[in-house]
Structures are given as C-alpha cells and as structure tokens.
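HUMAN: Mind sharing a backbone?

ASSISTANT:
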Amino acid sequence: MKSIASAPGKVILVGEHFVVEGKPAIAMAVNLRARVSVETIDNSSDIIIRSKELKIEETFSSKHINEKSPLYPVYVAASLARQHISLEKGLDIIITSELPPAAGMGSSAAVAVATAAAVIALRKKVDRNIVSKIAYEAEKIVHGKPSGIDNTISTYGGAILYIKEKGFTRINLNLKNVALVLADTGMPRSTGKMVARVRKLKARYSSVLDPIYKSAEILAYEVAKALEMGDVKTVGELMNINHGLLSAIGVSTIELEHLVYAARNAGALGAKLTGAGGGGLIVALCYKKDLLNIENALSGYSKKVYIANISRRGVIIEHKHMHSMNGVE
C-alpha cells in the first residue's frame, strides 16, 4: 500500500509576537508545499524516514528511537497516525519540501500534516481534525509550546484569524491579481529566544507596551475585514504599520529593514517581517504586474526570494494505490 499527501506552508500576515499574549494573528497558506510519500513494509514494524532536503535517513524501531534526530517529530506524527488506523506494518516514508526550514514558514508543521494524512490514507478516509491534532503533537517536539497556527493553516489552507485562547476563525479571502513575495535575510534565528526577549521587555515596560499590543489587536481585525472586502491597499498599509509595531518591540534588524524598504520602494503594497524576527524572512504583498520589479529589488539584498500564491487548499491526498479509494473529509 502506498499513498502521497502534500500540505502547504504558511506566512503570518500580521500579529506575530502579539499572538503570544492572546491577541489575534492572521496566517495564510502559501502554495509552497511539503510532500510525503508513505509505503507499507511487510514483516516489519520499523518506521524508516528519509528527507531529501536534509539529506538524512533514520530508522526508528521498537528497540531504537533516536529522540535527538531532526526526523523524530516526523516519526511521532507517523506513529500516532499508524495507531489511529490500527496498522501493524512498518512504514517507508520519503519527504520532499519546497519550504525553507527554520524560516518561519511552517515547514515542520507542513511535513507533520502531510505525514499524518498520508499514513491515515493508507486505510481510512482522512479526517482533517485528527490530522491537525496529530501534527500539533509533533509540533510540540519542535517548538515546545506551539501556538497551533502552523498545523491549523497547513491542514485547512486559506487564511485564518487565530487567537490563542479561542482557536481560529476562517477568513473568506477576496483577493485578485496579488501575490506574496518572501525574501530571506539568511540570518538564522531562534523563535524561542525572540519570544523570551519580547516577554522580558513587556514585563519591564508593560504600561508603555500595553497600548502597542492593543493597537496590534485592532489592526488584525481591520486586516481581516479588508481581506474579505478585497481591499488590498488597506491590507498593505496595515502590514506596514504592523512592521512598525514589531520594530517597536525590538524584533527587527538592519537586514530585515533593508528588505522591507527595498520591497516598498519597488512597488509593494505592504512589506513587513514575518515570523519571530531577529532574522528570517520578510513578506511583501504585491500586484502581480509588479512582481518582477520587486523580485529584482529584493535579489540585491537576499540570496533567496520566493514568489508565493495564496493557497486555498490545505492538505491533499495526491496519490493512493490500494483496493479502495478514499479522499479527505
């Protein structure tokens, strides 16, 4: 038995860091995907995982489970999914991904979501709620206390407004003729460290920062409204303001600023850092006719520039080879 599933990465359009304190964030699925192929192995209960991008292979058996392996979270997703379908056989798993790792685009969640879906599809109809829950367990290993945004958006696709205590609300996108451009500073950063730094600053100057957090909250709701109305100019302007709020809490860098201003000067509707900051990526919202200009401008500062369309589709089963054909619920 064999199945292949793919799941999209994401960008946080607005609200990163503020989401930690219970404010809303808006995340969007992008058409850069992680793809996972799963094949059953007879006469074995081992789970063999190979990542083409990381160029590593690991075998997890009942006698040997390497929890330090970068592939351990994938093993957890595969193992939980295998339990869910009561499968005793071993699994041969191959991962390929268009998503840059550790760049704030949810690559680990996309791999976990695609893994869970591909394993479940071997025997059952895929229930997205279960896929998302399994991926969240894998995300705990990667991020400690994940917000739940990444596995949710990768499972369901489209755009969501997410609040930590309340979960997510779907946003009905009404966007035409626009795309996202992402540019990588090439500076590695640790989400955990950046979040801790911001928390310390907030504890020290809470009376100063509380109004900034309130502004970020109002801004996220305004962006949600503008997305549903197709008012891309407002979305762009609010992205710029959100970048200013993120600069105010200390997570921008000179490299991020170069990219943000290069994108804006080349015609982006809005540009801001995305994710934890301190490095990583910027996201720019652009009319499709301006994409080439913006891509060229960013290439001067960044070795890796990605053009991404917004993906309305979440996890999908791409291939299934067995007696009966099931889909995704």
Remarks:
- The two ends are 20 Å apart (CA to CA).
- The chain has a mean pLDDT of 93.
- The longest strand covers residues 25-41.
